Amino acid sequence: MVKTIFVCLEVGPEATGAFVPTCPGCWVFGRTPKRALKKVKVAVADWFKWLEKHGEPFPAEMEDFKIEVGEMLRVTYNPVKAGKPEPLFWSEVLPITKKDIEKVIRLMQYSREDC
Length: 115
What we know:
By secondary structure, the protein is of the alpha+beta class. Helix content is 33%, strand content 23%. It has a four-stranded mixed beta sheet, with helices on one face. Strand 2 (16-19) and strand 3 form a beta hairpin.
């Protein structure tokens, strides 16, 4: 069965940012929404491989998934320069749990180890 992974797009006048709320830190940019969506599918697959490399549970979605736009925001700023926290936490989902925070801290540690 194909798993749907929802993406949030921030479409600005100069570029489009795409982030995946179920994959904390998975964020890409493209000049157009179409380009950002193409890049985000690759980024999600790489994100699953990265999790596996660090011993996190292997997500079944990695086998077969499709990307779908869950939300599209038209913004007046350039998402490339925004520096907002959405790649880590989806702002509309409250409250953030202790488990969510622990996972993000663990993922940030992996990222530091990989540098």
